[in-house]
Amino acid sequence: MFKWLKKKKETGVKELPDLIALFSESKDFLQYEFPQNPQPFLIYYLKTMVDDNTLHRDIMPYIKKESVQTLEDLKAEVPIENIIITDDLQKINDGLLHGSVVIRPGKGGKECAIIKAPVNFTRNVSAPEVEFSVIGPKEAFVESLDNNVNLIRKRLPVENFKMKQIKIGKLSKTKVAVLYLEGIANEENVNTVIQRLEDIQIDQINDSSYLAQLISDNANSPFPQLIDTERPDRVASVLGEGKVAILADGSPLAIIGPTTLVEFFSAFEDYFLNWIIASAFRTIRFVAVLFSLLITPTYVAVLTYHYELIPKDLMATLISSRREIPMPPILEAIFLELAIELLREAGARLPTKVGQTIGIVGGIVIGTASVEAGLTSNVLLIFVALAALGSFTTPVYRMSNTIRLIRFPFLLFAHLWGLLGVVIAFCFMLIHLLRLTSLGRPILEPLYPLRIPDLKDALIRLPFSFQSKRPVQLQTENTIRFKGAQAKKKNDFDE
Predict the structure, then answer these.
(1) Are residues 207 and 185 in the same domain?
(2) Out of 14, 218, 280, 393, which residue is the most buried by the measure of CB atoms under 10 Å away?
């Protein structure tokens, strides 16, 4: 079909018969005359794009009526909204490609009626798979843009809920929606998102992940600068805070921004739990990520340069575990890290049941065999396994991948300069994060620049009654969410 469009551009189609001739090269393009009398109409449509029930129930019976003599009569009779009568070849072309039925009077004429009858194949709303939560709603986005907007609108039934739609992609012409709450979201953030989307020059957009890469502030950073989510309740929540959401037709993920680094370690289930428990879980995630990032490089640095830091009681255990290992600590660590990554990648690419088996059996077999063969120490095996578990605690999959990747530069620096190298690598990472932004906003907020009011929902989560104001870093037009003093009152009555 795209070949025809290119041919159309080269040959310069100027008449409707020429356009129909180009579409006729496809086997799924149908054209016929109906009915034979009293007034025949020429009908054109792509069979694979049109809903047969709509065609035979809502269009064909009305064409046979004797009162239907012109396209205006047909428009008045057919019970379908937004019927367009035009002679614009571009509109006719777009209508055919997007599932419309084009009807033309049999006696000739340039004008055609474009009647929308698209077929929509989409799966039903199901439970989240990536961001599953034990407590809370069990709805996830699907591949239909209209369905996804509906899931958000029913959670935000307010008149200032706004949606701007843009078509992106010279070939795919993907519908992209920008969602925000007027009067709450910062206009600068909204305009920044819309401008960046309109400036995109690309042939295809197959998923919202493309958009996240194309509009990010720094495309060369391994750290994600926008959060993708499959949960409608999370999108509705951040819209209420003043953020902007992006949906793409054909993608089950929404993009939200601007965002901060601490949000990548905050699960939305935290808001369904008591604030003390949620804060404890959030703290565990931060500690687990730091452990995952630093434990293996620290092992390599200590065994390579800093034996004096090892306690005497632990020294005997390390000596016995490394007594028959021929490789230096750096090669031993890289071997195990790569083995873990291979198992994880193999488990992700194989079918679910087979992948789980490979992950469990492969981990046990490779771990046991490598220790017995004298290739790795059992102490490092435990550290690498715990580091892998620590990276799994990150709620956002993209950040989990980043943690897995940057562990290798830390290993290299640890091998070259010991603990000093680990500190240097950490400083490089910190400098990069200090310069990184999300839609122009510093990604390290509220830690730097320090926003004390926003710390109530950063490293820990305080009760909802303390969160009466929207985040300062978003610079929203309406900063007040609710009256905090009244929220803390308990208006009990005497029995």
Answers:
(1) yes
(2) 393
